[in-house]
Amino acid sequence: MSQTFPPSTFHGPIKEVFPDIFYVQGTVKMGPAVQITRSMVIIRENGELSLINAIRLGSEGEAELEKLGQVKHLLKIGSHGMDNPYYIDKYQPKVWSRKEVGLGYEPDVMIEENGELPFGNATVFKFQNATSPEFPILLGREGGVLITCDSVQNWSKKDLKIGSFIGGIVTRLLGFLGPAKIGPMWLKTVTPEAGPNLSFDFERLLALDFKHLLSGHGSPLLGDAKNTLEKQVRKVTF
Ligand SMILES: [Fe+2]
Questions:
Q1: 77 C-alpha to center of ligand 1: Å?
Q2: Residue 79 C-alpha to ligand 1 middle, in angstroms?
Q3: How far, in Å, from the CA of 1 to the mean position of ligand 1?
Q4: Cα(38) to centroid of ligand 1, in Å?
Q5: Domain spans of the chain?
Q6: How far is the CA of 121 from the centre of ligand 1 (A)?
Q7: Dist. CA 156–CA 210, nearest whole Å
Q8: What tens-digit pLDDT sequence spans the chain (238 residues)?
């Protein structure tokens, strides 16, 4: 049975942010002429690659990816996952996912807070009060590397250049721009109508030890991510 997958869209090179931790800035089409950035994290351990917030790469990018190691694990920690069926078909990785209806594939492992991961020295966090929880991952190296999807984003003006012109305008209008910013649309979407809100979750997140942020949107925030996120949390009305 042949299947068609979304084609790859424009992306930058695979960059090694820390030893065996890679980041790729790509794009996603939000509508006609509206293209915004999204990013993938790749973790290498013993020659095995784990892809988080996976983005399908072009043929050259894919060749580079294959030089890094074997794609063995695919992790869906948040909403991003449009290219997961492509990776599943191409490499048959072990699929780790949050609980979600309508995925179209069966995950091998459900991601849970403090649950198992395919690489060492890392823990899973859960936005417990979110109606559709995201599961950031904390790598316990380099002073702590927090990996998010939509919950915490890190857009700067230079990140707008990678998307389309109109995508840049939309991004600004929707209030995405800023360091370690809580995704405004994400927050609106996952905040429950009644009961506890997400401020409790962000306090728990800020209790973790991390210095760096690798988000599903924007670019790496290195060195001061926790302090920067704390300032953003204080600005938000939950
Ligand atoms: Fe997103």
A1: 11
A2: 6
A3: 30
A4: 7
A5: 15-235
A6: 26
A7: 20
A8: 557 999 999 999 999 999 999 999 999 888 787 788 899 999 999 999 999 999 999 999 999 999 999 999 999 999 999 999 999 999 999 999 999 999 999 999 999 999 999 999 999 999 999 999 999 999 999 999 999 999 999 998 888 777 777 777 777 777 778 999 999 999 999 999 998 999 999 999 999 999 999 999 999 999 999 999 999 999 999 9
Cα-to-centroid distance, 149 and ligand 1 (Å): 6
Level-2 CATH architecture, domain 15-235: 4-Layer Sandwich (3.60)
Report CA(207)–ligand 1 centroid distance (Å). 24
Ligand 1 midpoint to CA 30 (Å): 10
